Automatic annotation (TrEMBL):
Protein name: Sulfate ABC transporter ATP-binding protein
Annotated Pfam families: ABC_tran (PF00005), TOBE_2 (PF08402)
Annotated organism of origin: Desulfosarcina alkanivorans
Domain annotation ABC transporter: ranges: 2-231
SMART domains: AAA
PANTHER family: SPERMIDINE/PUTRESCINE IMPORT ATP-BINDING PROTEIN POTA (PTHR42781), SPERMIDINE_PUTRESCINE IMPORT ATP-BINDING PROTEIN POTA (PTHR42781:SF4)
Molecular functions per Gene Ontology: ATP binding; ATP hydrolysis activity; transmembrane transporter activity
Record key words, sorted: ATP-binding, Nucleotide-binding, Transport
Glycosyltransferase keyword on record: no
InterPro entries linked: AAA+_ATPase (IPR003593), ABC_SmlMolc_Importer (IPR050093), ABC_transporter-like_ATP-bd (IPR003439), ABC_transporter-like_CS (IPR017871), Mo/tungstate-bd_C_term_dom (IPR008995), P-loop_NTPase (IPR027417), Transp-assoc_OB_typ2 (IPR013611)
Length: 343
């Protein structure tokens, strides 16, 4: 487990914290946020390679705040792998054993098991400079696990990989976590990673945690406007609730809600349903006109002007072609009140 209490780090031009975070024993936890939000700084504080300004850090019920990195029982894999280019694959994997207490034979046996499990047996004599991105990540993972850490830290390990390698390494992380039960804290800016791997997530913004919860809860019920935007709720609109109607400028949505207070209506683009203006079987919905269409291949993103409000929608490209939607076409929007999240 990892327990971070009131952690703060002060750097020129940036302040982290205070941050409180609990990662449970055996949990796969993802820390998400945009570039520059302080994600990697939290990992480097846990592993002990940055000076913290305040707070405490506990790993597996030990206060490690004042301990050097090699005594913390923590392994880390960086985005760029940080392998030693002058060493072979095998020597990279064994590198950390010299700095850790324990039986040398146990360490080498563990390395042999990792080499087999990660499919590295045919690469041991290779220079790491000749490896593919996915191979480098597997070597970095073996090196991080060779010392039998109680906690594994992953610093955006998938960000620089091609899509095919990304899926391969993601599956590898998932299977290793399932087999070993090791506690994992992973930093990422990709919500796909969180949905695929994490039991819980935290969203970091400008050095502070904005929300913690299961990936599904944060994705569907963001607590702040920033979180809503970060998790892809493309429609985050200032609104007012009055007489059971949610008013977004001139756009009225029948929605049971307390009266009076200003709020934001957050609606995922996939929950905005579009029909042609002359559709015979559907409900009338809200009248609008398609302002723009961006074809993304499998799906398309549409911006629709409705009563002076721009509403974002997504739909399969095949559906777009079937319905014959074009820029400037008149449409009707339907939004299920259950899909409107109020912030």
């Amino acid at each position: 487990m990892i327990r971070i209490e009131r952690l703060s780090v002060r750097l020129p031009g940036f302040s982290l914290g205070p941050v409180d975070l609990d990662v449970r024993q055996g949990e796969f936890f993802c820390l998400l946020g945009p570039t520059g939000s302080g994600k990697t700084l939290i990992l480097e504080s846990v592993i002990g390679i940055v000076a913290i300004s305040g707070g405490r850090i506990r790993v597996s019920d030990r206060d490690v705040t004042g301990l050097p990195p090699e005594q913390r029982g923590v392994g880390i894999v960086y985005q760029d792998c940080a392998l030693f280019p002058h060493l072979s694959v095998e020597k990279n994997i064994h590198y950390g054993l010299r700095y850790h207490n324990g039986s040398n034979s146990d360490g080498h046996a563990r390395c042999r098991d990792l080499v087999e499990r990660l499919g590295l047996a045919g690469l041991l004599d290779r220079s790491v400079t000749t490896l593919s991105g996915g191979e480098k990540q597997r070597v970095a993972l073996a090196r991080a696990l060779a010392t039998a850490p109680s906690v594994l830290l992953l610093d955006e390990p998938l960000a620089s990989l091609d899509p095919c390698f990304r899926e391969e390494i993601r599956d590898l992380f998932r299977s290793l976590h399932r087999e070993t039960g090791i506690t994992v804290l992973m930093v990422t800016h990709d919500f796909t990673d969180a949905h695929t791997l994490a039991e819980r997530v935290a969203i970091l913004h400008d050095g502070r945690i904005e929300q913690t919860g299961t990936a599904d809860a944060v994705f569907r019920r963001p607590a702040t406007v920033f979180v809503a935007d970060f998790v892809g709720m493309r429609n985050v609109l200032p609104a007012r609730r009055q007489n059971g109607v949610l008013t977004v400028d001139g756009l009225n949505l029948a929605l049971p809600a307390p009266n009076g207070s200003h709020c934001y209506a957050a609606i995922r683009p996939e929950h905005v349903h579009l029909q042609p203006e002359n559709h015979e079987n559907g409900e009338a919905g809200i009248a609008g006109r398609i302002r723009s269409i961006v074809n993304q291949g499998l799906f398309a993103e549409l911006a629709v002007d409705a009563s002076g409000v721009t509403v974002k929608a997504v739909m399969l490209t095949s559906s777009l072609m079937e319905l014959g939607f074009r820029q400037g076409a008149r449409v009707h929007l339907r939004i299920d009140p259950a899909d409107v999240h109020l912030i």
